[in-house]
TrEMBL record:
Family matches, as SUPFAM superfamilies: Carboxypeptidase regulatory domain-like (SSF49464), Porins (SSF56935)
Signal peptide region: 1-20
Organism of this sequence: Salinimicrobium sediminis
Family: Belongs to the TonB-dependent receptor family.
Pfam families: CarbopepD_reg_2, Plug, TonB_dep_Rec_b-barrel
Record protein name field: TonB-linked outer membrane protein, SusC/RagA family
Compartment annotation: Cell outer membrane
Ranges of residues in domain TonB-dependent receptor plug: 112-230
Keyword Metal-binding attributed: no
Keywords for this protein: Cell outer membrane, Membrane, Signal, TonB box, Transmembrane, Transmembrane beta strand, Transport
Major subcellular location class: membrane
GO cellular component: cell outer membrane
Occurrences of domain TonB-dependent receptor-like beta-barrel (ranges): 415-764
Endoplasmic reticulum among keywords: no
Length: 1003
C-alpha cells in the first residue's frame, strides 16, 4: 500500500507540473499588407486542438512550451511557430504563389495550374505600390517581352506599349485594353500631333490585377484585335465581412532625370566670333561691333562685362510636384459586396506650364440575388484637367528655349517676357499671354447578370459603356505668335462612345472522376461612335476675352461624325485529363465594318496543350522538383486598327468660288481584308525546392501577313496613298522569368523576380519595295523603321571638313569605305534600329520585422535614338542656336583630331542628316523604389486602426547610360507618320525623377 501511495503521489505531482506549464498564447495574424486575416486555422501540431482568428485577426489558444502552432489559411502559405517563453505570438502570412491561384482570361477565369498560354500577371501590390498618374507606368519592367515607354516628360504624354514587338506598319500597334470585360476606347483625341495618353483618366489605385495576354492562344479569343496583345484590367471588389476603410495619401516633388550642359555667354561669344571669322574673315566684326548682332541680342545689357548670361534650360525645366490621394470603403454580406472609392491626383510637370489634375470615383457592387442568379455593376467616373504646352516641333514649347542665345535676357525691365531680341519666339510669352487647356470627362459602366441553369451550366450577359468626352480650348493673346492677327483662339470638342454587349454560356463539369471539361460559347457586339466639332477665330478686343465667341472673325470651323462596329462569335474548350494533361482550343469569327464587303469577316482559331510532367509517377515525392510543365500554343489573331472607311472610295463636300462642290478624297479598295498574325509559342514552367525557385522559359515566333499599309501612289492620281494589304513581317524572341524566395523566416523575407527577353524583328516581304520616310526605312530583310542614313566619318584633320563614308556598292557586293567631304557622294545605309533587341526587369521585395523595401530595375539594349535637333543644337555654330558644350572641342587648326568639324557660321559643314546624330540608347534604370514601415498591430488597434504604414517612394531615381542626350527614352511627339517615323528625338523633354512620402491607413 505504501508503494502504491507513493506512486500515486508521484504521478499526481508530475501531472500537476505539466499542467502548470500550459499557458494561454495570444496574438494577431495579418497578411503581407498588414491587414488582419479572418478565419485563420491554428492547431497544435500532432493534435486536434485548435482555434480560429476573429474579425480583427486575433486569437488565443492554450499550449505548452515546445508545442508547434500551425497557421493555415486558404490562399496563403502555411506558417509554423514554436511556443517558447513568450505569451504573445504575432504572425504575418505570405500569399501562396503556387499554381493553384486563379488568373483572368478572356470571358472567364482559369486556374493558373491549368493555363497552357503565356499570360503575365501583375498583382494589386505591384500596381498600387508606386503613386503615379499613368496606369501603364505601373507595369514597366514587370513583364517579360513587354516594352512600355512614355514619349516624353509631359504629364499627359502618350505611352507606347509594345507586346512582343511591332506587328504592323500602318495599322495600330497598341494592345487592346479590357477593363472588367469592357473593351476600352484607346484613341488619341488630341487636337495637335502631340498625343494624350488615352488611359490617363484611369486611377491606378482602383485596380486589383492586370493580366497581359501575350501569345496567340490567349489573345485569339479577342480575334480581330489581339495581334498586339490584350491587357485585361480587373478593378477591386468588396469581400463579405467587416467593412474596411482604406486611405492612401502621398505628396512629393520631382525634377528632370537629366539636364545638359550648354554654352554660357562667354563661350557663346567665343564660338560664334570664331565661326563668323571662318566664314567671312576676322576683319568682319558684324557680331561684336558696337550696335552689332550681339548688342541686339543683349537688348541694351552689357554682354561684354557679363551683365547678361541667361540659362534658358533652367526656365524650361523646373521642379515639379505630385500629390495623390485615394480613399475606399469595401465590405458586404454573404449576399452583397461593395467597393467604393474616390481619388484625386495633381501632378505639376518638370516642364514649365504643364500640369494635370484628376478627380475619380468608382462604385463596384456584386449581389447574389438567389442561389442561381448573380448580378453586379461597375461604374467609374473621372474628370481630368490638363494644362498643355506646345508640341516638340513648335517654338512655343518650353524646351525649344535652349535654342535661344544666352546673350538674350528672358524678361524685359517691365517684367514682360522678352520677345524683342530673341533669335526665336520666346516660349514665356505663351505662359504670360496664352492658355491651352484640355478637359477629359470619362464614364466607364459595366453591368452583368449570371444565371446558373444547372450546377454545371451558366449563362452570363454583360453590357458595357465607355463615354470619353474631351474638350480643348487654346488661346494665344496679342503679345504671342498671333500678334499679327491680334490674338487667336480655337475650341475643339470630341465625344466618343462605345457600347459593348456580350452573351455567353459556360459549361464546367468533371466526369469519370479525372476528366475536367470547360466550354465557353457566346457572341459579342460593339459599336463605337465619334463626334467632333472645331471652330477657330482671330482678332480680340482684349486679351481678357479668350473664347472664340469674342473673336472678330471666324477663320475655320467644321464638324465630323463617324461610326464603326464589330460583330463576333466565339467559343473555347478547355480539357484536363488526370489533372496533368491539358488541352485548349478556341475559335472566333469576327466581322468589322471597316473592311470590304467581300472580306468583312475573318476566322481566328487557336489551340494549346500542356503536360505537367512533375505529376507523373516517376516524379512522385520529389524533394527537388515541385513543378515541371511543358506547354505549347498556336493561334491566329487580327488587326483592324485602320480608318473607319479605308475600303471605300470617299467624296467630300466643299466650296469652289463660293459654290457647293463634291470632290473625291480617298481611293477605295474593296479587296481590303484583315491583317493576320500567326504565332507559335513553346514554353516550360518550372519550380524547385517547394517552389522557392520558380519561373518560365518561352520561345515564340509571330508572323504577320497581309500587312495593312498606307501605300504611296503616284501624285498624278490626285491622291497621296491607298490602304492595301501588302507584305509580311516576323518577330521572334526568347522570354525568361525567374522568381526566387531567397529568405523565408519569421523576421526576414526576401523575394526576387527577374525577367529577360529578346526580340528579333524582320520585314520578310515588301512587294512594293522600300518605304523611305525621313531618316527611317521599311525594307525587306531589315527591322521595321530602321535608321537609313549617310554614315558620318569624323573630321578631316587637315582642314576641319566633315567627312562621310561613301558606302557605294561595288561590283563584288561590298561597299566603298573611302571617305568624302561631299555629302552628295555618300550613299545612305541601314545603321541601326529604334527597337531594343534585349530587355530586362529585376524586382526585389523584402520584409524585415515591420519594414518593407521593394525596387525595380529596368534595362534595354540594342536600340538607337536619332536627334533630329542635333543639326541645330550641336552643329558647330552653323545656326545662331546655342550649342552643347562638346562643340568647344571643335577643329581649330591643322592636325587637330576631333569629331566636331570647324565652326562655320551659315555654312554647312556636317549638319546634314547622318549617323553623327545617331546614338545607341542602351540604359539601365532604377524605375521605382518603395520603403515603408508598418506600425505594430498591437499599437494601432488601440486607436481602432488595422494598419498604419508610412512610406517613401521614388521613380526614375537612377539611370545608367552612355547616351549623351536628355534621356534614352524621350522621343519626338510630333511625328507625321507615327508608325514609320520612330526613334527620333527633337527638343523632347526627359521624364521626371519623382520622390514621394505617403501614408496608408486601414480601419
Amino acid at each position: 500500500m505504501n508503494i502504491k501511495n507513493y506512486l500515486f503521489l508521484g504521478l499526481f505531482l508530475i501531472s500537476t507540473i505539466v499542467l502548470a506549464q500550459e499557458k494561454e498564447i495570444s496574438g494577431a495574424v495579418v497578411g503581407e499588407n498588414g491587414l488582419p486575416l479572418i478565419g485563420v486555422n491554428i492547431i497544435i501540431e500532432g493534435t486536434t486542438r485548435g482555434t480560429q482568428t476573429d474579425f480583427d485577426g486575433n486569437y488565443s489558444i492554450n499550449a505548452n512550451p515546445g508545442d508547434i502552432l500551425v497557421y493555415s489559411f486558404v490562399g496563403f502559405g502555411t506558417e509554423k511557430r514554436t511556443v517558447g517563453a513568450e505569451e504573445v505570438i504575432n504572425v504575418q502570412m505570405t500569399a501562396d504563389n503556387s499554381l493553384e491561384e486563379v488568373v483572368v482570361v478572356g470571358y472567364g477565369t482559369q486556374s493558373k495550374r491549368k493555363v497552357t498560354d503565356n499570360i503575365a500577371s501583375i498583382s494589386e501590390d505591384e500596381i498600387n505600390n508606386i503613386p503615379i498618374p499613368s496606369l501603364q507606368g505601373a507595369l514597366t519592367g514587370k513583364a517579360a517581352g513587354v516594352q512600355i515607354t512614355q514619349i516624353n516628360g509631359k504629364v499627359e504624354g502618350g505611352v507606347k506599349m509594345r507586346i512582343r514587338g511591332i506587328s504592323s506598319i500602318s495599322s495600330s500597334q497598341e494592345p487592346l485594353y479590357v477593363i472588367d470585360g469592357m473593351p476600352l476606347i484607346n484613341d488619341d483625341e488630341s487636337v495637335s500631333q502631340a498625343p494624350i495618353n488615352p488611359l490617363i483618366s484611369l486611377n491606378p489605385n482602383d485596380i486589383a490585377s492586370i493580366e497581359i495576354l501575350k501569345d496567340a492562344s490567349s489573345a485569339a479569343i479577342y480575334g480581330a484585335r489581339g495581334t498586339n496583345g490584350v491587357v485585361l484590367i480587373t478593378t477591386k471588389s468588396g469581400k463579405s465581412g467587416k467593412t474596411k476603410i482604406s486611405m492612401n495619401t502621398s505628396m512629393g516633388w520631382s525634377e528632370p532625370t537629366n539636364t545638359l550642359d550648354w554654352l554660357n555667354a562667354e563661350q557663346y561669344v567665343e564660338l560664334f566670333t570664331e565661326a563668323s571669322a571662318n566664314s567671312y574673315g576676322a576683319e568682319d566684326t558684324w557680331l561684336t561691333e558696337e550696335g552689332g548682332y550681339f548688342d541686339w541680342m543683349a537688348n541694351g545689357l552689357d554682354w561684354r562685362n557679363g551683365e547678361v548670361d541667361t540659362d534658358w534650360q533652367s526656365l524650361a525645366l523646373v521642379d515639379g510636384s505630385v500629390q495623390d490621394h485615394t480613399i475606399s470603403i469595401s465590405g458586404g454580406s454573404e449576399k452583397t459586396t461593395f467597393f467604393l472609392s474616390g481619388g484625386y491626383n495633381r501632378t505639376e510637370a518638370i516642364v514649365r506650364g504643364n500640369d494635370l489634375e484628376r478627380y475619380s470615383v468608382r462604385t463596384n457592387v456584386d449581389h447574389k440575388a438567389s442561389d442561381r442568379l448573380n448580378v453586379g455593376v461597375n461604374v467609374g467616373i473621372s474628370k481630368t484637367h490638363i494644362s498643355r504646352i506646345g508640341t516638340d516641333n513648335s517654338f512655343s514649347t518650353p524646351l525649344q528655349a535652349i535654342a535661344q542665345s544666352p546673350l538674350s535676357p528672358a524678361f524685359l525691365e517691365n517684367g514682360i517676357p522678352n520677345n524683342e531680341s530673341t533669335i526665336y519666339y520666346n516660349f514665356l510669352m505663351q505662359e504670360y499671354n496664352g492658355d491651352w487647356d484640355s478637359d477629359i470627362f470619362r464614364v466607364l459602366f459595366n453591368t452583368y447578370a449570371e444565371y446558373y441553369l444547372m450546377e454545371e451550366l451558366s449563362f452570363r450577359s454583360e453590357f458595357g459603356y465607355d463615354n470619353n468626352n474631351q474638350t480643348e480650348e487654346y488661346f494665344a493673346g496679342s503679345l504671342t505668335e498671333s500678334a499679327s492677327t491680334n490674338g487667336y483662339a480655337d475650341a475643339n470638342a470630341v465625344q466618343s462612345d462605345r457600347y459593348s454587349l456580350s452573351n455567353y454560356f459556360t459549361y464546367n463539369t468533371t466526369f469519370v472522376e479525372d476528366y475536367d471539361l470547360e466550354v465557353v460559347l457566346g457572341m459579342s457586339f460593339e459599336e463605337s461612335a465619334r463626334k467632333r466639332q472645331f471652330v477657330a477665330g482671330t482678332g480680340f478686343a482684349s486679351d481678357d476675352l479668350q473664347t472664340v465667341d469674342s473673336a472678330s472673325e471666324i477663320i475655320d470651323g467644321f464638324s465630323t461624325r463617324t461610326k464603326y462596329n464589330f460583330l463576333s462569335y466565339f467559343s473555347r474548350a478547355t480539357f484536363s485529363l488526370f489533372d496533368k494533361y491539358l488541352l485548349k482550343a478556341s475559335l472566333r469569327y469576327d466581322g468589322s465594318s471597316r473592311f470590304g464587303a467581300e472580306n468583312r469577316y475573318g476566322w481566328f482559331p487557336a489551340a494549346s496543350a500542356g503536360w505537367i510532367i512533375s505529376e507523373e509517377d516517376f516524379f512522385d515525392n520529389s524533394e527537388t522538383i515541385s513543378l515541371l510543365k511543358l506547354r505549347g500554343s498556336w493561334g491566329v489573331t487580327g488587326n483592324a486598327g485602320i480608318g473607319n472607311f479605308a475600303s471605300l472610295g470617299l467624296f467630300t463636300g466643299g466650296a469652289y468660288n463660293k459654290i457647293a462642290t463634291l470632290y473625291p478624297s480617298q481611293l477605295g479598295n474593296p479587296d481590303l481584308k484583315w491583317e493576320r498574325t500567326d504565332q507559335v509559342d513553346i514554353g516550360l514552367d518550372f519550380g524547385f525546392f517547394n517552389n522557392r525557385l520558380s519561373g518560365e522559359v518561352d520561345y515564340y515566333v509571330k508572323k504577320t501577313n497581309d500587312l495593312l499599309l498606307n501605300q504611296p501612289v503616284p501624285g498624278t492620281s490626285g491622291f497621296p496613298s491607298i490602304t492595301r494589304n501588302v507584305g509580311s513581317m516576323a518577330n521572334r524572341g526568347f522570354e525568361f522569368v525567374l522568381n526566387t524566395k531567397n529568405f523565408t523566416s519569421e523576421d526576414f523575407k526576401w523575394d526576387t523576380s527577374f525577367n529577360l527577353s529578346t526580340l528579333d524583328n524582320e520585314v520578310t516581304d515588301l512587294p512594293g519595295g522600300d518605304i523611305v520616310s525621313g531618316v527611317n526605312i521599311v525594307r525587306e530583310g531589315e527591322t521595321i523603321s530602321s535608321f537609313y542614313l549617310v554614315e558620318y566619318a569624323g573630321v578631316d584633320p587637315a582642314n576641319g571638313d566633315a567627312l562621310f563614308y561613301k558606302n557605294t556598292l561595288l561590283a563584288d557586293g561590298s561597299r566603298d569605305r573611302t571617305t568624302t567631304a561631299s555629302y552628295n557622294e555618300a550613299s545612305r545605309v541601314v545603321l541601326g534600329s529604334p527597337y531594343p533587341d534585349l530587355m530586362m526587369g529585376l524586382t526585389n521585395t523584402m520584409y524585415f520585422h515591420n519594414f518593407d523595401l521593394s525596387f525595380t530595375f529596368q534595362g534595354e539594349w540594342g536600340s538607337s535614338l536619332y536627334n533630329s535637333g542635333g543639326k541645330f543644337q550641336s552643329g558647330n555654330a552653323r545656326y545662331e542656336d546655342n550649342q552643347t558644350v562638346d562643340q568647344l572641342d571643335r577643329w581649330q587648326q591643322p592636325g587637330d583630331i576631333t569629331d566636331v568639324p570647324q565652326a562655320r557660321m551659315y555654312s554647312t559643314n556636317g549638319q546634314q542628316d547622318s549617323s553623327r546624330y545617331l546614338e545607341e540608347s542602351d540604359f539601365i534604370r532604377l524605375r521605382n523604389l518603395a520603403f515603408g514601415y508598418t506600425f505594430p498591430f498591437e499599437w494601432t488597434q488601440r486607436f481602432s486602426v488595422d494598419r498604419l504604414r508610412v512610406y517613401f517612394t521614388g521613380v526614375n531615381l537612377l539611370t545608367f547610360t552612355d547616351y549623351s542626350g536628355y534621356d534614352p527614352e524621350s522621343t519626338y511627339d510630333n511625328n507625321g507618320n507615327f508608325n514609320i517615323n520612330v526613334g527620333e528625338t527633337f527638343y523632347s523633354a526627359p521624364p521626371a525623377k519623382t520622390y514621394t512620402i505617403g501614408l496608408n491607413i486601414d480601419i
